[in-house]
Amino acid sequence: MEKSNKLISQIASFFIVLLVSISYSYLAYAQPKKAINSLNDFVSGINEKIDKFSAEKMSQGEKGSDGIDGSNGKDGENGSDGTNGLSGTNGANGTNGTDGTNGINGINGQNGSTGIQGEKGDNGPRGLAGDTEELGSITSAAITYYVSPSGSDENGDGTVGLPFATIQHAIDSLPDFLAHECNIILAAGTYRESVVINKNSVNATNYLYITGNTSSPNSYIISGADSASPTEAVRDYGITLYGDAAYYLRGIRLDYFKKAGLFMENGSRSRIQNINFNYCAQDNLYGAIRQSSYTYLDIRGAINITGNGGNNESGFYSADGPSYMYNYGTFAINIYKVKYGVYSSSTSQWIGDNTVQWTVDNSAIDKIAGSAGVYFGAGDHGHDFELDVNNFTYGVYLDNLSLFDVNVGNTYTNVDTSVSANNGSLSV
Fold first, then answer.
1. Biased-composition ranges for Basic and acidic residues (predicted)?
2. What residues pair up with 51 in beta bridges, in sequence order?
3. Separation in Å, CA 161 to CA 148, 172, 246
4. pLDDT tens track for 97-151
5. What pairs with residue 417 in β-bridges?
6. C-beta atoms surrounding 203 within 10 Å
7. Is the entire prediction scored with pTM above 0.90?
């Protein structure tokens, strides 16, 4: 503002001087004295007007140019938050953090359906006997049941006057645990059934006896055939033994079964005496007597086995885990019309007695290719056998580290090779 007023004064002074100069020159030339007075009056008037003009300009000056912007004031307080915008797309997953501690287990779900049964494992060691009160069903004294084909499972009580009709019903009537000797005594006749025995011993010296008549076993028959077709096997096994009880079978005959007359499984123990087996392996898979899974067979009397001449049928068969066979006394074991008198391929032990005569005779049939009186195929051991082998390819065939004691008294008739030892096997 101040600069503007000063500029106006300078411009006004310039014109005044110019006018004065022109007027003075004129008056000075025409009327000098009058010119000077007139000039002074003129100058004074001009000055008054200039002063008045300047005063007006001072009171109402023109708008000056904008000044320089001042510095910014302090920031005001933040306003209220606005509404949230739309969610953006998810970013990439970050790396997993450290696992937290496990939470409390949830409630168990419902049990699933039962899977297919797996193969049986080897038997574990026998546990210590516990308090007999915790065993459940257990004998309190010796028990004897009588069985007759003319008896009744519904109305009988197992006594002599009211015998049971089936051997299985008598077995099922016994407690699960045997602390005393038990007897099942058979009347003469034919029992068309398969018998399954699964008992346990509290005292291993007490036997469960199944007795016919040791002098006439052919009158006490357990049959795998029905009466309508008495020579056609319809049942797999005659007697099947489980459990750790000690069984004693004597004076009976087993006829016409598909797979075996006697099947010992899962560590079972049995003595047999004066038993006859007829056509008991009609499927030609096993033998009249089949052992598996650490079973113990103790032969204490005459055994007679007659096969049907099948191409894979055996008298004695063991191939499902190590088993043991013992025979003691003075008696005969006779085996007829089979491919193998003894077939063992399970690192089993066969312990004989030089007073027991084994006769394996196929003279009634044509010789079967590859047949053997004794076949040991997987580290099996045989000791003290008195053998009489007739009409076989081999008298004794040994394979895969098997061992057999060949006694001087053994005889081989119509046998192609008396003893064949292969793959590390030994005959001594």
1. 55-77
2. none
3. 10, 20, 28
4. 566 565 555 555 555 554 555 454 444 444 444 444 444 589 999 999 999 999 9
5. 394
6. 13
7. no
pLDDT in tens, 326-365: 998 899 999 999 999 999 998 899 888 778 999 999 999 9
Tokens 């192609």, residue located: 416
Measure the CA–CA gap between 4 and 64, rounded to whole angstroms.
9
Backbone angles phi, psi at 117, to 5 degrees: -65, 130
Place of tokens 């394996």: 360
Contact 370, 339 (CB under 8 A): yes
Backbone angles phi and psi of 146, in degrees to 5: -110, 145
Annotate 213-257 with DSSP letters as a single string.
-TT-GGGEEEESB-TTSTTSB--SEEEEEESS-EEEEEEEEEE--
The DSSP symbol for 424 reads T
Tell me what percent of the residues of the chain surpass a pLDDT of 90: 56
In contact, 385 and 410? CB cutoff 8 Å: yes
CA distance 51 to 57: 10
What pLDDT score was predicted for residue 308?
92
Which token pair is 198? 């699964």
> In what helix (H) or strand (E) does residue 334 lie, and over which residues does it extend?
strand 332-336
Contact yes or no for 350/342 (Cβ under 8 A): yes
Distance CA 295, CA 122 (A): 11
Tell me if residue 175 falls in helix, strand or coil: coil
Is the torsion defined by CA of 296, 302, 307, 311 positive or negative? positive
